[in-house]
Design a protein that fits this description.
The protein is of the alpha+beta class. The protein folds into 4 domains: 52 residues, no CATH class; 214 residues, Transferase(Phosphotransferase), domain 1; 121 residues, 3-Layer(aba) Sandwich (D-Maltodextrin-Binding Protein, domain 2), CATH 3.40.190.10; 135 residues, Periplasmic binding protein-like II (D-Maltodextrin-Binding Protein, domain 2, 3-Layer(aba) Sandwich), CATH 3.40.190. Helix content is 37%, strand content 17%. The strands form 4 sheets. Strands 12, 13, 14, 15, 16, 17, 18, 19, 20 and 21 form a 10-stranded mixed β-sheet that branches. A 6-stranded antiparallel β-sheet has the order 1-2-3-4-6-5, with helices on one face. Strands 7-9-10 form a 3-stranded antiparallel β-sheet. Helix 8 crosses helix 10. The relative contact order is 0.06. InterPro entries: Kinase-like_dom_sf (IPR011009), Prot_kinase_dom (IPR000719), Protein_kinase_ATP_BS (IPR017441), Ser/Thr_kinase_AS (IPR008271), TRAP_TAXI (IPR011852). One of its GO terms (molecular function) is protein serine/threonine kinase activity.
């Protein structure tokens, strides 16, 4: 439009501007409730049609912007059909329905009283974001009715009219005792309208304003509303704006659902809704509505709103209350709904029902409004409800999701953080920062605790009189003097028994034959000495070679001994381990007394007192082992060995001795044994040579390769 102050325009200050005159005439017609639509009015000024249309569009834009920043009336479409409700000017009302399109103010409506066909409009019952509801009188039937009109009146645009018609059609489809019935739809004096039942009473928002209500009464109200909403859902309609203000209570204390202004058909894509716009009432809308995802709106969206209404009736406030619409929307989208028990002492079943309704994900809510109504009915009748409460783990995860650092990790936006969540985060950050020091202290403490000597170390030896028992006893005496605490040497059945006790933690040290040193948990402390396999035959036995003992009974030691392990390896190499020989599991102390046993095998250190006594009696003699080298190749823990005449002087052995195989006796412990114990044991072991023939020295042990040494033992030998 040309600027009248521009320097290249003629001076026309004294002449009336035809555009201004037309605009003033339009405003007067609108205020008077004229019947002409905007298009008809513009057609009256054909020469100014283009300029006048631009001016009116600009005026609409200015009015919309002004209306979005300074609402002067409570947006309360819930006042549709109630009488005597005061309309307060409260500014940014969190319980007002978010209008899809801003509309002009009161001036677009008719002057009251206003006669409109069969109806006389008498007073305003309430104004909402898009509509105005009047108390009217229907002349023909002489009855009070509620009449709803578009708030922008004769200035209503095409989208507003379509939306208004959709609301009327949606409500007219529903015939339910708990839904306000629509009677008539029409157009009078340029105003679209529809009439409906006038419900004299109040809405549920008054109950909420009065504070917490009786739980049973609240459950009854919401049960009946849920039944009505299920009726709408069955006919394909979603309400999308359920809130206490849209539930009317009549004189008989019965509920009536009203205001289907935002209703949507389940299978329809509404072209009347702006993509990404949040529509509904922030305090009561479902998360998918608050995020503007209209495609995700479903029957469970109304179920969420029903749960929010039930929450508000029980507690006297909606689930989310903030200082602004935006904060409320963000909390609805991202923050778990608070528990009823945080505000009042409600029955557990009712808390479970509300909790299920207010889940963020639609699929986690009641599948239908009917299911919600059924559970509320069960609660009222004292029957078990079908909903199940959330587990403590789920509640804990919900609580953690409101800690800022965890919320950031899962992509949840927080508009507000409680003191407890901030304190928890501070503690977590402090813990993380302190974690290296804590871990170092724990590891140091654990190491110190672990590296302590046992209060009474135990050593697994062998049978009474055996070399193992002798070595264990002598080592126990030395160690006891070194560590200044009692050390016990236990009598056992041999290597296999010793291994079991060591792994079970019954002993701290054990003497094991080489073939028994196995498993990741066993570590070697020191190789002690070599053991020889003694084949002891009765003197009257004509057998000269070991290969000739087929069919004989052979004692190979107890099943828990190392002798039987070595014997089985020997007979395996000779091919005599498959039933050719009858094995008797007896120690030599017993088998020597049983004359039915002609041969005994004893794996023991050369010079054994038990073997020496048997040979000296002349009742027994030693047999040679055939081909000991090949046997040692079959079983690496065995090695060729000679039993020399000096080992048993009274036995009249050949000068070159008796060929046999031998193995090694080791001192072992657990892999996690305290280093201080291992070191103290080695120092006691090598202080003086133990009275065992051919004891392996510290230097020889240090040169040994391939041993699974305990770390402390390796350090000990490397320090040599």
């Amino acid at each position: 439009m040309p600027d009248p102050t521009s320097s290249n325009q003629p001076e026309e200050s004294d002449l009336p501007d035809p555009i201004d005159e037309a605009f003033v005439a339009y405003l007067k017609a609108r205020d008077a409730g004229g019947s002409d639509s905007r298009a008809d009015f513009i057609e009256r000024f054909p020469e100014l049609k283009s300029q006048l249309s631009e001016l009116l569009d600009a005026a609409d834009l200015i009015e919309q912007l002004a209306g979005s920043n300074g609402a002067t009336e409570k947006a309360d479409p819930a006042a549709d059909t109630r009488a005597g409700v005061r309309i307060d000017s409260i500014g940014d009302d969190l319980e007002a329905t978010l209008a899809i399109t801003p509309v002009p103010g009161e001036g677009a409506g008719p002057q009251l009283p206003f006669e409109m066909g069969d109806y006389v409009l008498e007073s305003v019952l309430g104004r909402g974001g898009m509509g105005v509801v009047y108390l009217g009188h229907q002349k023909n039937l002489d009855r009070p009715v509620a009449v709803k009109m578009i708030r922008s009146g004769v200035l209503a645009g095409r989208d507003e009219i379509k939306r208004f018609c959709s609301e009327a059609k949606a409500a007219a489809k529903l015939k339910h005792p708990n839904i306000v019935a629509v009677h008539h739809f029409g157009l009078e004096a340029g105003h679209y309208y529809f009439s409906m039942d006038y419900v004299e009473g109040f809405d549920l928002s008054k109950k909420v304003d009065d504070g917490p209500q009786d739980c049973r009464e609240a459950a009854r109200y919401v049960r009946d509303v849920a039944a009505a909403i299920h009726h709408a859902h069955q006919r394909g309609l979603l309400h999308r704006d359920l809130k206490p203000g849209n539930v009317l209570i009549d004189a008989c204390d019965q509920v009536h659902v009203t205001d289907f202004g935002l209703a949507k058909h389940v299978d329809a894509e509404s072209s009347l809704t702006n993509s990404g716009a949040a529509i509904g009432t922030p305090n009561y809308m479902a998360p998918e509505q608050a995020s503007g995802d209209h495609e995700a709106t479903c029957p469970q969206s109304d179920v969420y709103s029903l749960g929010a209404i039930l929450f508000a009736l029980i507690t006297g406030r909606p689930p989310f209350v903030t200082d602004s619409v935006m904060q409320t929307l963000m909390q609805v989208i991202h923050r778990p709904a608070p528990a009823l028990r945080s505000f009042c002492d409600a029955p557990a079943d009712l808390e479970t029902i509300v909790e299920k309704c207010l889940q963020k994900e639609p699929q986690q809510r009641y599948a239908t409004a009917e299911a919600l109504a059924d559970d509320l009915d069960r609660f009222l009748n004292g029957q078990p409800i079908r909903a199940r409460p959330r587990t403590p783990l789920q509640r804990g995860l919900d609580w953690l999701s409101e800690v800022p650092i965890f919320a950031a990790l899962i992509g949840r936006r927080l508009m507000h953080t409680s003191d407890s969540h901030r304190r928890f985060q501070s503690m977590m950050l402090l813990l993380v920062l302190s974690l290296p020091m804590i871990l170092a202290a724990v590891l140091f403490g654990a190491r110190m605790l672990h590296d302590r000597l046992p209060s009474e170390p135990k050593i697994a030896g062998g049978p009474t009189g055996d070399v193992y028992a002798h070595v264990a006893g002598e080592l126990a005496n030395r160690l006891q003097q070194a560590v200044d605490r009692p050390v016990e040497a236990l009598t056992t059945e041999g290597s296999v028994d010793n291994l079991k006790r060591l792994l079970a933690g019954d002993v701290d040290l054990a003497i094991l034959q080489a073939s028994a040193v196995r498993g990741e948990q066993v570590s070697v402390i020191a190789p002690l000495y070599y053991e020889a396999l003694h084949l002891i035959a009765r003197s009257n036995l004509e057998i000269k070679k070991l290969s000739q003992i087929v069919g004989e009974r052979v004692a190979i030691g107890s099943q828990q001994s190392g002798s039987q392990l070595a014997a089985h390896m020997l007979f395996d190499s000779l091919g005599l381990d498959n039933g050719e020989v009858e094995f008797v599991y007896q120690p030599f102390q017993q088998s020597r007394l049983d004359e039915t046993i002609p041969i005994s095998i004893v794996c023991v250190a050369r010079g054994s007192k038990i073997v020496a006594a048997a040979l000296q009696s002349k009742q027994f003699r030693l047999l040679a082992v055939d081909d000991p080298l090949n046997i040692s190749l079959d079983h690496p823990t065995l090695r060729p060995l000679q039993i020399l005449p000096t080992d048993y002087p009274a036995a009249d052995l050949p000068e070159d001795g008796i060929a046999t195989v031998g193995t090694t006796a080791f001192l072992a412990t657990r892999r996690n044994a305290p280093s201080v114990l291992v070191t103290a044991t080695l120092e006691a072991l090598y202080r003086n040579e133990i009275s065992v023939p051919r004891m392996i020295t510290r230097q020889q042990a240090a040169e040994w390769q391939g041993l699974a040494l305990h770390p402390a033992a390796r350090a000990f030998y490397e320090s040599e």
